[in-house]
Amino acid sequence: MRHDESLPPTPRRRPLRLAAAAALLCLGLAGCGDGGGTAAAQAGPSGGAATTPPATPSPAPTKAAPSPSKSRSTPPSKAPSKTPPAPDGPLSGRTVVIDPGHNPTNHLHTAEINRQVDIGTGHKECDTTGTATNGGYAEAEFTLDVAHRLRTLLRDQGATVILTYDRDRAFGPCVDERARIGNKAHADAVVSIHADGSAVGNRGFHVILPASVRGGGADTSKIVAPSRDLGTRIAGLFVRSTGSSPSNYIGGKTGLDVRKDLGGLNLSTVPKVFIECGNMRDPEDAALLTDPGWRQKAAQGIADGISSYLKG
After folding, report:
1. 5 to each of 131, 134, 208, 263, 279, how far by Cα in Å?
2. pLDDT per residue over 173-196, tens digit each?
3. What integer best gives the mean pLDDT of the chain?
4. Which long-range contacts (CB under 8 A, 24 or more apart) does 60-68 make?
5. Taking the model in full, what pTM does it have?
């Protein structure tokens, strides 16, 4: 059963030659320069194939599924968290939407997040709980922490920064609403932050790019190329900032993957990518993801990639 927007379906796919070549060129350089929710059989619910039990927030995960909330109604939507830009900077006049994957209290609202929503090419759960390290550090806590660090870095460059949520709602937002937030903001770039829940031994990061999709409410034809540019720059500069390697289990070691089953990408009308920063279920990757110093480096790498893309 599939539970998440951040893990790929079970079959692994070989990356397009063009994607591999572009990414390898980018990764081989000094981070592309300023000139410009996996297929693991034991993958957890950070993405598409859900076999890892739902995560609970720190300090300790429980294997038993939490009881659903009695309320099945979606709370009134609040305005996305928006940080005023700095007075001046190289990204002045640019808008970036940061989408922290999942929500730390999703596990208290299982009925609501299991509700099916239209992703353009079919239907999928509104949202999922995400995964966690074996020590109980939840993916949803990780994504918010990196999002806050990233927001500060981008704001310091003059960007207007919007978060899809910031502990201001009980669950979600649903994946279709996450896409709409970026669209409504006419964002110059959107990045959805995640961490994977794959098998031990599967290590490294990967950036998920939108496939060419047209069906229902989805039409990615105008964002495929710019999203690839954005994702390639983030991948290269993430390597330079963190020292992490591209995934050894997806993307052919290019750090890039293309998917057509994610509503957050399918329904976007602005350039958007996902980044899986590492595998929370691998002890070596988990040691990085739980380190505040490394999370700052991760935020810096993503910020550098966004900045490189926006500067052109």
Report:
1. 12, 21, 11, 7, 15
2. 999 999 999 999 999 999 999 999
3. 82
4. 60/135, 60/136, 61/132, 61/136, 61/138, 65/107, 65/110, 66/107, 66/108, 66/110, 67/110, 68/109, 68/110, 68/111
5. 0.76
